[in-house]
Amino acid sequence: MKQLMGVINLDHELDNLNELTYFRSGAAVPFASRYRLIDFVLSNMMRADLESVGLFVRRKYRSLMDHLGDGKSWDMNRKHGGLFILPPDWNDPTDTSLGDLQHFHNNLDFFKRAAAKYIVFSGTQHITTMDIEDMYKYHMEKGADVTVVYKKIDQLQPEHDLCQRVEVDEHNNVTSIHHEKDHHNLYLDMFIMEKALFLEKVKYSIAHGESYFFRDVIQKNRHDLKIAGYEYKGYHAVINSLESYYKNSLELLEPDNYFSLFKENPVQTKIKYEAPTRYLESADVSNSLIANGCIIAGKVENSVIFRGVQVRKGARITNSVIMQKCVIDENAVIENVIMDKDVHLSKDRILVGDHTRPFVIAKSSKI
Q1: Residues 112 and 241 placed together within one structural domain of the fold
Q2: Alpha helical stretches, state H, 10-61
Q3: Among 212, 246, 311, 355, which is least packed by CB within 10 angstroms?
Q4: How far is residue 16's CA from residue 240's CA, in Å, rounded to a whole number?
Q5: What is the C-alpha to C-alpha distance for residues 188 and 195, in angstroms, rounded to an integer?
Q6: Secondary structure letter of residue 275 according to DSSP
Q7: Contact 169/37 with Cβ under 8 angstroms?
Q8: Which pLDDT score is estimated for 51?
Q9: pTM to 2 decimals?
Q10: Glucose-1-phosphate adenylyltransferase/Bifunctional protein GlmU-like C-terminal hexapeptide domain: from which residue to which, for each copy (predicted)?
């Protein structure tokens, strides 16, 4: 869509996943046996064929840059447009802007050079199968200044406490945006607006000492803007804590959840040419999601196993998430555990966490 460009803004996303975000941003956290959290929003934008996508990052972005490369896996390695990774620029001594407005101010050329007339903004903590083209058409039909995306949640969960809420009237016009926990319409950190209006508001907000675009421009000026609400009804998971990461990872073992996320909307990720997983005679695997390149000789049940994991004979893994290239030696026992990449668990070791609070092993540990 030549009329639409994308912005993935990580500036406001806190690193709430503890050990999993010691060495990487939340957007780079592995998920669902072979993906990273950023893959889902990037794939949504790829399906909409956006002209260009800008990724605004502030810290711990080495792992993210290594994963994204030149954007080829998402068909964004183009001569014109494509994927732009935009770290903070501290070289302008006259810059007085703060927060994500500082990012936008220091990269105004990225917006001005793009031919697109509209911008869709998103974070990475909400995993969806968003149809961005349909969202854009809705925005145009409503004639709104801004269209924000929300999802009505039947049963609120602890991870929803940190999410903003959206209230709408009978015409789906936004009447309020707030943090009241008993409301069921979750704001999905995604909105669309005209580029010219965005640039105008950025300039005005910086001149008036503001810091964050959504909060200071959209939320605080609700009465001065025509804001529409777009209700999203597809698969949704929010990853903003270790507990929500663990819960939503294991919920993908339910076929309905897995097919809702992947069947009709293929998700792209960094291509790695690895052999299929080998299951040795002693392997016993049930209700698990296992990526390529593994060697399984032990027992795996109700677990998510990433690429290149070795589970040796006599080892047992239950209700756990094991990331890339971990080695589980003979007769080790793992239950209710999140194990980051490159961990080596020695033989006969036993690690048991709680089903509501998993035990977490940091990257490259040896136990």
Answers
A1: yes
A2: 37-47
A3: 355
A4: 6
A5: 20
A6: P
A7: no
A8: 87
A9: 0.95
A10: 283-349
Q: Which CB contacts under 8 angstroms, 24+ apart, belong to 58-62?
A: 58/10, 58/11, 58/87, 58/88, 58/103, 59/25, 60/15, 60/21, 60/23, 60/24, 60/25, 60/28, 61/25, 61/28, 61/85, 61/87, 62/24
21: closest CA among 5, 37, 9, 33? 37
CATH number of residue 286's parent domain: 2.160.10.10
Cβ contacts of 168-171, under 8 Å, gap ≥ 24? 168/229
Predicted local distance difference test score (pLDDT) of residue 237: 97
The answer to whether residue 267 is domain-embedded is no
Q: What is the pLDDT of residue 11?
A: 84
- Separation of alpha carbons 234 and 244, rounded Å: 18
Structure tokens at 343: 């961990």
Torsion of CA 174, 176, 177, 183, to 10 degrees: -100
Tokens coding 352: 């048991």
For residue 298, the enclosing domain spans 278-361
At 66 the three-state DSSP class reads: helix
The answer to whether 188 touches 232, Cβ cutoff 8 Å, is yes
Check if the beta carbon of residue 30 is closer than 8 Å to that of residue 339.
no
Residues paired with 315 in a beta bridge: none
Residues of the chain with pLDDT below 50 are none
Q: Phi then psi for 209, rounded to 5 degrees?
A: 75, 20
Residue 14's pLDDT is what?
A: 77
Q: What are phi and psi of 202, to 5 degrees?
A: -60, -50
**How many CB atoms lie under 10 A from the CB of residue 208?**
8
- Angstrom distances, CA of residue 101 to CA of 8, 9, 64, 321: 14, 11, 22, 37
CB atoms near residue 13 (< 10 Å): 20
Distance CA 261, CA 271 (A): 19
Q: What is the 8-class DSSP label of residue 186?
A: E
